[in-house]
Amino acid sequence: MQRTIEARGIPTIGITLQKEITKQVKPPRALYLRYPFGHPLGEAFQVKQQRTILLETLKGLETIKDPGTILEPGYVWRRHRFD
Fold first, then answer.
1. What is the span of the domain harbouring residue 12?
2. Judging by beta carbons within 10 Å of its beta carbon (0-12, 13-18, 19+), is residue 57 exposed, middle or buried?
3. What is the pLDDT along the chain (83 residues), one digit of tens a residue?
């Protein structure tokens, strides 16, 4: 789906929890988090955490120049502090 949207001139980025599968699929851009399934933006009700992840993802639209790049911000589930 991302490639179809990109073909129309609209940049896309996906959030993935499965790095190996994402490498095989090769989307235009992706952000990988080592989080459990069902939590692509972090823990429920953790607004600062979710906002940080969303902003990091959107920043990837501006910074990723090479197709297939997977960003890895290194956040750790339930250990990383988001202030």
1. 2-71
2. buried
3. 898 999 999 999 999 999 999 999 999 999 999 999 999 999 999 999 999 999 999 999 999 989 899 999 999 887 777 76
> Does residue 65 lie within any of the structural domains?
yes
Residue 28 CA to its chain's centroid (Å) = 12
What tokens appear for 74 in the block?
């290194």
Who's near 20: CB < 8 A, 6+ residues apart? none
24 torsion bin: left (phi>0), alpha (psi -120 to 50), beta (else): alpha
Q: pTM to 2 decimals?
A: 0.87
Is 79 inside a domain boundary? no
The domain total for the chain is 1
